[in-house]
């Protein structure tokens, strides 16, 4: 067995046994000729792998902030009551195992949960009761699961819609007969296609680097691990237009000369796997994958799919590559681009689902089509997923240059009293009402696709706490500022919640954010405190109300400090 | 190899093209501190202590390969402070009780702490309960002290090529775990090597922990000639010519800092000329009779009485100084902070060897101070103006700080006086 198959093998054991038993670990270690602790290190990195036995139904309830605001607590209680189990503990002799999990890409239908990786959306305590009742009665899980459709709430006028227009299989690939590699690149360059995962690195440049690399073989990797809480726009492509994404990968293979492609699909989207595999099979059948693609001699390309296993950090391209290689998903040090040394140290293009889909549309429609769509710098449209306190949560295909105000309007997501908006998920930025005239555009708010809208009644510190806890457990644990920094920030949050924080504490948070930004290894660490820090400036009034303004003052909560003692003495009196 | 020129902090430097920055800087007489870097390993970039700026962009120094014309910043105020901050993060994330650590004096992280002049940590200590794993054959892994630098993971390999250590879990739960089967294959020398490459006291070899006698360890006499300035201390200008008044107290401490104070020795005679002691165990004055210029606090707060006394000091003193580790972050009494109060008290009064069988009552009385849920540092309770680190702080260190504060004279402390292992 090759190391790169490790995650797939672990999934096998996980699915067969409900956990990965020690004997399997021993077996894998022997096969790979590595120490057992190395296998255990991989297993314990991914939260969908279990080392302890689980029961027939594994329930993962989403604990993202949108879920929290939409009734997560009651749903959690309902699950515990109906199953007679508690979360995060191994309940023997039960049908159920309960776990929490970060965003599962269903923010428009929260609270949501995965049961054996089948989605269940818009949960209420009543709904939970009925689900558990059905499962106890042995009803088929798939039959009772929700079938979450992509709620496409908005597309621009027909002549401006890029993604959600009719899809005809192979339209972009067929064009390759008359296009050289360089012509494909220049088409992409003309439109300014750039990485839609959020980094907005020029796609043509990335592909050119890989193309010019003499080293072989080369790999095309599709990053379908959209883990940024509040993002579910890639899911819409995987669900509605998987072929378009595959065509993008085939284009990349055509340009770079790669022979192999891999889709790294987050396990949270496992229910989409059959659909994607069907689309891949259709591509083979139609001659768009395999040998001599579309009749072009020696244009050979194959695509396979690999499942992640629950780790937000694997959305970072070098961590994703490590994960594909069967390792812990720790980001690599930044001295070489993946186009130089990526998957198995070979030249690799890693692009986001949306980027590949867009590339396919650019070749299909021609760069001229994009001329009058979007802004001067940001051409075309962008997929955004909007959730939170709005009437129409879901997927929006918007023209670049759309303002936040337009997004919030009745015609689009119809927000009620929007107050705090989180752009690009927890690692992004928050904006206040004064900034609602800003544009979604690369030159202003470069949005990766996640927009969460919260109204005035929402508790900002609850949002920040949710984000910080998310980063605390999703950090790869390797570098100090990220691993320790987020734990330390939670101490400040505790202080704020106890009402004993002063203006000094807020200054500290801003300074500590700078330290984390300066010294963390990867983007996760660098930006994990930036929302907290910027919220302090942007929602000054809110923070002024919950802290002590006098900088010199230090408030000590003596009552809280003796609470444990008083309780204990009272309980041991008799 | 081609020689290239580059700049560090504006200084012209030369090195081989592609050379590692840490090595290249060293050759040019510039020291970049590191905790995970090893010349013969691929750079790990995990500890982040060596963070520098390359052409204005922050990056871990150990991951930089020198190229022509590079502009590197190493010792700017921002980067120096950042380095200190990362070390402080390591100190608060683990449970580093240096006075009770076998590696003290031989510990790279501790040495770097001195070197960067850490007096107290800006971050709150986390006091997470961590295990000490003594199951392995030859070694003991003390998770309280691990900084996850990854050195052992990369470096300690059995003769047949198996890793002995590896990361397990992720996020704040990340641990360096041991493969017991592979560990058993290590030779004595290999196990000792593991202990030596560990930059803290996390990996110890059973029976070999005090292999080197005190005074003979790696950092015992390092930087002897070096002085540490007390530049962060603002002089207190007083117009009146009266004797300065000093108050002292010991809260949750061991009186060791007071003993150290007495070690000022003959200086004490000078001191008496210049200052008078008010409330202090030295004078046995129980209540403040006058307002004091300076209050020296030994020990942190573990009960309600400590809180009361500390607040009294803040009320009656112009300047308040935390003296010693316990005052600064809880110190040894704070070892209990990783254990819930209930377990502590039950262990002490109900389940101890000397307690009566079936004992259920934890002794308490309204006149006895209540025990706090954890030991607090003084600056969590009241505003503290200065911190004098040490366990105990050297007498000269205390003396010089007091002189700096009260008499507008500038003093520095010598490196050995700043160290306290």
UniProtKB/TrEMBL annotation, chain A:
Keywords associated with the record: 4Fe-4S, Iron, Iron-sulfur, Metal-binding
InterPro entries with a match to the protein in the record: NADH-UbQ_OxRdtase_51kDa_CS, Nuo51_FMN-bd, Nuo51_FMN-bd_sf, NuoE_N, Nuop51_4Fe4S-bd, Nuop51_4Fe4S-bd_sf, Thioredoxin-like_sf
GO MF, one example: FMN binding
Keyword Transmembrane: no
Classification via Pfam families: 2Fe-2S_thioredx, Complex1_51K, NADH_4Fe-4S
The keyword Iron-sulfur is annotated on this UniProt entry: yes
NADH-ubiquinone oxidoreductase 51kDa subunit iron-sulphur binding domain span: 461-506
Family in the record: Belongs to the complex I 51 kDa subunit family.
Protein name stated in the entry: [NiFe] hydrogenase diaphorase moiety large subunit
Species annotation: Lutibacter oricola
Lineage, broadest ranks: Bacteria, Pseudomonadati, Bacteroidota, Flavobacteriia, Flavobacteriales
Automatic annotation (TrEMBL), chain B:
UniProt keyword 4Fe-4S present: yes
Names of the cofactor(s): [4Fe-4S] cluster
Gene Ontology MF annotations: 4 iron, 4 sulfur cluster binding; metal ion binding; NADH dehydrogenase (ubiquinone) activity; oxidoreductase activity
One of the GO biological process terms: ATP synthesis coupled electron transport
Domain 4Fe-4S His(Cys)3-ligated-type: 78-117
Pfam families: Fer2_4, Fer4_Nqo3, NADH-G_4Fe-4S_3, Oxidored_q6
Domain of life: Bacteria
Gene Ontology cellular component terms for the protein in this record: membrane
Keywords: 4Fe-4S, Iron, Iron-sulfur, Metal-binding, Oxidoreductase
Keyword Iron-sulfur in annotation: yes
Protein name, entry field: [NiFe] hydrogenase diaphorase moiety small subunit
Taxonomic source organism: Lutibacter oricola
